[in-house]
Amino acid sequence: MLTRFLWLALLACTSLNAAPSIAPATLDRLAQDPNWIALGHYEYKRLRGWHSYVDDRRFFLAGNGRYSPADELAATLKALYEPATLGNKHAQCIFPARTRWLRASLNLSDLPQPECTDFHRWYGDIAPHSAVLVFPAAYLNSPSSMFGHTLLRIDQADTQADKTALLSYAINFGAYVEGSDNSMLYAWKGLAGGYPGLFSLVPYQQKLAEYRSLENRDLWEYQLNLTPEETGRLVEHVWELQQIRFDYFFFDENCSYRLLELLQVARPGLRLTEQFPLAAIPTDTVKAVKAAGLVQHTEYRPSRERELLARAAPLSAGEQALAQRMAQSSVASSDPAFTALHRERQALVLDAAYRLLRYEASGQPRDAERSQRSFSLLQAINRNPPPALQVERPGLPEEGHPSRTWELGLGSRDDRAFAEYGLRMAYHDLQDNAYGFPLGAQIELGGLKVRQYEGGDWQLQQFNLATIRSLSPRNDLLKPWSWQVSGGLERVLGKHDDAVLVTHLNGGAGGTWQLGPDVLGFALGTLRVEHNNDFAAFAVPAAGFDTGLLWRNSLGNLRLEAKGDYFTNGEARRQLSLAQQWELSPTLGVRLAAQRDFSHLGGPVNEVLLELKWYHY
Amino acid sequence: MKRILLGSLFTVASLQAFAQAPGGPDCGWGNMLFEGQRGTPAHFLASTTNGTSGNATFGMTSGTNGCNTSGALTYGGKSWIAMNGMMNELSEDMAQGQGEALTTYAVVLGVKPEDRAYFSSVTHQHFNDIFKSADVTAEDVHANTLNVLKNDPRLAKYATQA
């Protein structure tokens, strides 16, 4: 009893005696320090005051810590002096980054010394030395991936010299999706912030497999010039964030925004997040990181799909067909088509066949027969290995045009002249300045166009909620479908030669073919539902076609397109259009477009439009 | 109802069922070559929401293919476990005699920089001894590799280091 009392007294005294008395002015100053703001993920808004992005009680030691950096600072300071016997539960073990910063800022030399075994084992296993910003780029079959994603790779001291990035860990921030929400709900909640965001730490090779093999996205790796000390600080802070929930919003408070915050923790004084008050599109954040002078050099990892295509590119049609046969079924090495080839060609065919087989197997459960076939091909490759594969590095994604576009156009519709003003929140259409983007991919969100006709009447020309087109070419080896969806408000030919504003939803599917080195031809069947005041029914469906050419030439991209919609109520609408982009500079483009519209409701109408496009975040 | 998984969903190795396989029962150590990649290709909406991860894995036990890292499975200071997700890449690299996974394998086995090119060529020549069939497991591959190293005078020292 007495011992216990003494213990209690001792503990009480320890905490009483050790609690440092620090001038309130000092505490106030520290609570406003950018380091502390960054560690708490605080943000100041004029009407709302202080507020942390972290939406999790466990992250705060003070009752109103989410709303008061000062209270949280005081509570943290107090907690640091709790008895060391708390071990892994001690605030110093839970908040190593806060501890380090407070100890340094206040010269806290008398802190208790808890043994943070959990943290030290974790930190020791990662052994942070340097960091790499990783950007999985767009995947043509999924233009939505054009927005990309960013994550951080943490390397050990010898990772660069040994080339063992496969052993590194990756820090990833993503929405935490629980269970069984269906896709629509998922999309909505993802956009609207219905899911919490969490950090996770996973082996980098697992992320590589996910992006390069499953999703077929190229990866860009930006080696950052963070010092070992800065990298360590970042990783310490990530420990503080394990299982901690953030608000997650697709556009602004997303993976890329959170990573910028981490970089600011690593190197205080960086001002990255403030550049993205509205939206943080990953390529834009990569640009900002580069502009801040953080990038040392850039590495490129092609996707499995790109590797397969690069390997197959030098093969003749006959050789490609052979590779395909070998991937589909066991072809004897005595097969005349194979033995007729030179040994070097055989090596290429074998490698292409193996890559094709594995490409087709990706995402599938293991299959004994296919595994055997893969293995036989590997054995053949082992006997006759091909030269190392060289994949040409595409344009740097962060040097592609910025995500937002301002548009100014002058044109005439039949005899009426007009001016058109547009703003598109994101991102890229088939003809926008092409550097850094794949040909045939389009994703547009939130586009608004307003027209002023000669004589002064203004009208809403178009409100594009979203348009996505994926025109990825079919070839002998790969046969992807092309598809498109779009929805919003637009003007179409109406009665009395008037353009009437309609609400529409469109979808289409078909194929795209590589007609020349820089020419794609596409043909899609389409479906459309339209709400049109000229129609008797509330909504009228239509079936139609959409076909055209896309040519990448020295000026920019040219598009020739014909499309038609045949409505169930008898209306038939067709459009023929031709447009050429002229790329003036990375952030400026001019587009000349001509189109002719036909309708059953009125005579054909011609329109010509000259448009200036300014890509500016 | 399918679960939307982008990050792999790993179960944390449970403590009661140890000693079944090195690293625990959920460990990929017993995975065969060409085991399907975990997870599903990102569907359209998933990639729209910026690489959503199904389960927020964190820390060493949950982030290592379900392997229990406390076992004696480390070589040259690196966790062997990191290798078992790379079996396919390793088989490809070894068949060709070069590549990142093969280099990484050499490092994990403690092969010194000056011996790595030689290690690549020896394992390339012995591909059929190391990857004996389409059904080899990571454990087999490792054991077979050590056998090959043992029989090579220059690399034998790396076979015993483990």
Give the topology:
The complex is a heterodimer of chains A (617) and B (162).
Chain A: H1 2-18, H2 24-31, H3 34-39, E1 42-45, E2 49-52, H4 69-80, H5 91-94, H6 96-106, H7 117-126, E3 130-136, E4 151-155, H8 159-162, E5 169-175, H9 183-192, E6 196-203, H10 204-214, E7 219-224, H11 228-240, E8 246-247, H12 255-266, H13 282-291, E9 295-301, H14 304-312, H15 317-328, H16 336-339, H17 343-361, H18 368-383, E10 405-413, E11 416-428, E12 441-453, E13 458-470, E14 482-493, E15 499-516, E16 519-531, E17 540-552, E18 557-567, E19 572-585, E20 588-599, E21 605-615
Antiparallel strand pairs in A: 1-2, 3-4, 3-7, 4-5, 5-6, 6-8, 7-9, 10-11, 10-21, 11-12, 12-13, 13-14, 14-15, 15-16, 16-17, 17-18, 18-19, 19-20, 20-21
Chain B: H1 44-48, E1 74-75, E2 78-79, H2 87-96, H3 100-108, H4 113-125, H5 127-130, H6 138-150, H7 156-160
Antiparallel strand pairs in B: 1-2
Question: Care to describe what's here?
Answer:
The complex is a heterodimer of chains A (617) and B (162). Chain A has 617 residues and is of the alpha+beta class. Chain A has 4 domains: 2-115, no CATH class; 127-301, endopeptidase fold (from Nostoc punctiforme), CATH 3.90.1720; 304-383, no CATH class; 400-615, Beta Barrel (Porin). Chain A has helices at 2-18, 24-31, 34-39, 69-80, 91-94, 96-106, 117-126, 159-162, 183-192, 204-214, 228-240, 255-266, 282-291, 304-312, 317-328, 336-339, 343-361, 368-383; strands at residues 42-45, 49-52, 130-136, 151-155, 169-175, 196-203, 219-224, 246-247, 295-301, 405-413, 416-428, 441-453, 458-470, 482-493, 499-516, 519-531, 540-552, 557-567, 572-585, 588-599, 605-615. The N and C termini of chain A lie far apart (69 Å). The model of chain A is unreliable at 5-17 (pLDDT under 50). Chain B is an all-alpha fold. Chain B has one domain. The longest helix of chain B has 13 residues, at 113-125. Residues 1-26, 37-57 and 59-79 of chain B have low confidence and may be disordered. The interface between A and B is large, with 76 and 67 residues.
